[in-house]
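Sequence, please.
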């Protein structure tokens, strides 16, 4: 028996909108709805206002969007978000968080990357990975991860945290530029002279 969530394939964009809450799914679903509505109105309500080629074009556009959206949905059908019992992704996140808190950066990064392979829309895991990269001294990778999170569908929820992390990266980069690092022997010499 086909699961009921497969019925979302009937409307282009609906699988991603319904099962993942995707903005791009919403845009596709609305675009399809508007084109179909316009085709129906042009055909049955205000048929005298539209020429036959325009009406045929609207129906052709509706069919093209439906075929493309349904084919795309069938090719990469989204897995429904888990509700209820803890999943492997949640267990991975908890394990990664424990490693992060224990300052085991390597284990935490490995677990977060595995988690993001399983669940690429996990904003909390993306944010933790960006924070981990910043704390591990990899600001360029951290900034890239934060920008990717900001552009993703789940990024709006984390705007405040993203801005804070970007500010911390900028502060760290500014501090490293302003205070040049001297070799150990040069840094200690003035302190000995003051003591003498």
């Amino acid at each position: 028996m086909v699961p009921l969530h497969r019925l979302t394939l009937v409307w282009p964009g609906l699988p991603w909108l319904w099962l993942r809450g995707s903005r791009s799914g919403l845009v596709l679903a609305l675009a399809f709805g508007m084109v179909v509505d316009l085709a129906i109105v042009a055909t049955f309500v205000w048929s005298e206002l539209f020429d036959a080629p325009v009406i045929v074009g609207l129906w052709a556009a509706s069919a093209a969007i439906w075929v493309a959206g349904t084919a795309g949905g069938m090719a990469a059908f989204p897995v429904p978000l888990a509700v209820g019992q803890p999943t492997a992704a949640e267990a991975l996140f908890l394990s990664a968080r424990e490693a992060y808190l224990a300052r085991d950066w390597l284990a935490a990064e490995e677990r977060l990357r595995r988690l993001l392979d399983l669940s690429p829309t996990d904003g909390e895991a993306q944010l933790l990975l960006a924070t981990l990269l910043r704390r591990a001294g990899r600001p360029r990778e951290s900034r890239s991860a934060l920008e990717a999170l900001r552009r993703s569908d789940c990024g709006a929820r984390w705007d405040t945290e993203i801005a804070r992390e970007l500010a911390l990266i900028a502060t760290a980069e500014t501090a490293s530029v302003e205070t040049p690092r001297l070799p150990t022997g040069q840094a200690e010499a003035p302190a000995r002279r003051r003591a003498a």
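The longest helix spans residues 52-75.
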